[in-house]
Write a structure and sequence with these properties.
Shape: globular
Keywords: Carbohydrate metabolism, Fucose metabolism, Glycoprotein, Glycosyltransferase, Membrane, Transferase, Transmembrane, Transmembrane helix
Protein name: O-fucosyltransferase family protein
Number of strands: 15
Largest sheet: 6 strands, parallel
Helix content: 40-55%
Family: Belongs to the glycosyltransferase GT106 family.
Strand content: 5-15%
InterPro entries: FucosylTrfase_pln, GDP-Fuc_O-FucTrfase, GT106_glycosyltransferase
Low-confidence stretches: 1-52
Organism: Lolium multiflorum (Italian ryegrass)
Number of helices: 24
Length: 565
């Protein structure tokens, strides 16, 4: 019994000496870890007898060693602790390295310029915050790009001396004013390609325009030659030493023909340059769309932009009159208001050439069929095949919009009847009757003849191209430009506004196929049509997009002629 009592006392003394340390350790662990529950009192008053505390969270859900070490669940003095810390440091190092590698990509995305991209036939544009304006593109679109085709003061000229040039080239710029403008830009480009001297182009009389305008009647010759003097050598006339002037454009020996459309720069070097070197002076005929876009060097395309946007300026008198017309448009209501310019392509010739069907009486349709048969006999044949072809073209959006159709689209986009609209067009086919629906929706339609006095406009009637130049400049200065069909006029205007306005100015290209859908479904409510118009035209307002291969440089000069702002 004495031995038993001695053993009991020794065990009690051992428990007494070890219990405080254990309790302190447990208390410290409990206080330092959020995963351990607070101590709870025991007793026999529980529902099921003795009250049991739930196990700690880290015991119910085992955690990896490094995480346990980080959360102070792992004893630093344990053998596995150094390994856990090394694993944790390795994981943190990998995360830091991944963040460091991805940082430039993230920054580049945050600082990327505003640029729309083609997705099939649709244009996908970055989203912007805030509600769009009827009169301007999003501000962010205008902050990303700037013009950069102008000549810089520090740019080094590679122009050779007059004795080292290959020879002289001479062209006739054919067609209307805008087609002639493109031909002049291309003439400067091929002179650069072949290292030749350009003789000031002649504006050829067109069969439709029947105009005898000369280059100096429209454009500022001095500015044209001086601005390009470090790029291409340009002379006003054929050199005096050349005595066979009558042979140019008439003699086979002096004319380069059969140049394919959209020819490459290399084609001119291989096929035209040898003849210029041999004959010293050669003319090129015809010269409509005889230079490509994606098959010429970048610097040549930039030179074309330099000619179009900087070197080719209209005469001061034309510029001043256009400024007056634009000012009068903005002040028609007594207050300064924005105005829209509408390029309405619905002349008789355009309607006939489109071979589309339009609303009209039987007599009007018979007269149009007779006109088409006379003007385009090979395409017309007997006319029996034209009806299904006309329906297909209208569904595909390849027909000119009628005045009433463009009125519907503009009203659906949110423009009210108070909108001031400048109309640039020839004689509208169908006259006032055809214009009535548009005028009912937008009563404030005016032309240059309405804005200018008879005395002011009479001076410009000497040359048809002068009147076209006024329309060009007033459309260029407008707050919103709207086209109704393709053509060089609309292409040049949209490209000019993109370049000089840095994409801020809206240039609307209506979806012509929408009208076919709208009129083809008599049950489509107006609200649905409005929704379709708004969604479709969000990206059809002249926003920044890359110039892709085989695309027209004149409508979209961004890739070749604009730089990051």
């Amino acid at each position: 019994m004495a031995e038993l009592r001695h053993a009991t006392v020794a065990a009690a003394a051992a428990r007494a000496s070890s219990s405080p340390a254990k309790r302190d350790a447990e208390a410290a662990t409990s206080a330092s870890s959020p995963f351990l529950p607070s101590p709870r009192g025991g007793g026999d008053g529980g529902k099921d007898g003795a009250l049991r505390s739930s196990p700690p969270l880290h015991q119910r859900f085992p955690l990896p060693g490094p995480v346990r070490a980080l959360l102070a669940l792992e004893d630093p003095s344990s053998p596995s602790a150094p390994t856990s810390y090394r694993i944790l440091l390795a994981v943190l190092a990998c995360l830091a390295l991944a963040a460091l590698v991805s940082a430039p990509s993230v920054c580049s995305r945050l600082n990327a310029p505003y640029l729309c991209r083609k997705d099939g036939i649709r244009l996908q544009c970055p989203g912007v915050s805030g509600r769009g304006s009827l009169w301007e593109n999003p501000r962010v679109a205008a902050m990303s790009w700037k013009p950069c085709a102008e000549r810089r003061s520090d740019e080094i000229s590679d122009l050779v001396s007059e004795d080292e040039t290959s020879g002289y080239i001479f062209i006739h710029a054919e067609g209307g004013l805008n087609q002639q403008r493109i031909a002049i830009c291309n003439a400067v480009a091929i002179a650069k390609i072949m290292n030749a001297t350009l003789i000031l182009p002649v504006l050829k009389q067109d069969q439709i325009w029947k105009d005898q305008t000369k280059f100096e009647d429209i454009f500022d010759v001095d500015h044209f030659i001086n601005y390009l003097k470090y790029d291409v050598r340009i002379v006003r006339d054929i050199p005096d030493w050349f005595t066979e002037k009558d042979e140019l454009f008439t003699s086979i020996k002096r004319t380069v023909k059969n140049i394919p459309k959209y020819a490459s720069a290399q084609f001119y070097v291989d096929n035209v340059l040898p003849r210029i070197k041999e004959k010293k002076i050669m003319s090129i005929k015809p010269f409509v769309d005889r230079l490509g876009y994606d098959n010429v060097p970048m610097k040549i395309n930039r030179l074309r932009c330099r000619v179009n946007y900087h070197a080719l300026k209209f005469l001061p008198g034309i510029e001043e009159m256009a400024d007056k017309l634009a000012t009068r448009m903005r002040n028609r209501t007594g207050n300064v208001n924005p105005y829209m310019a509408l390029h309405l392509r619905f002349e008789k010739g355009m309607v006939g050439l489109s071979f589309c069907d339009f609303v009209g009486t039987r007599k009007e349709k018979a007269m149009m069929a007779e006109y088409r048969q006379k003007q385009w006999p090979r395409r017309f044949k007997n006319g029996s095949h034209l009806w299904p072809l006309a329906l297909e073209k209208r569904k595909e959006g390849r027909c000119p919009l009628e005045p009433g159709e463009i009125g519907f689209i503009l009203r659906a986009m949110g423009y009210t009847k108070e909108t001031q609209i400048y109309v640039a067009s020839g004689q509208v086919y169908g006259g006032n009757k055809r214009m009535a629906p548009l005028r009912n929706m937008f009563p404030n339609l005016v032309t240059k003849e309405d804005l200018a006095s008879k005395e002011e406009i009479e001076h410009f009637k000497k040359h048809v191209t002068s009147l076209a130049a006024l329309d060009f400049l007033v459309c260029l200065k407008s707050d919103v430009f709207v086209m109704t069909h393709g053509g060089n006029f609309a292409k040049l205007i949209i490209g000019f506004r993109r370049y000089m306005g840095r994409h801020r100015l809206k240039s609307i290209k209506p979806d012509k196929g929408l009208m076919s859908k709208f009129f083809g479904d008599p049950y489509m409510p107006w609200a649905t049509f409005v929704e379709d118009v708004m969604i479709t035209h969000q990206t059809r307002t002249g926003l920044p997009e890359a110039t892709f291969p085989h695309y027209d440089l004149w409508e979209n000069p961004l890739t070749h002629c604009m730089c990051r702002a």
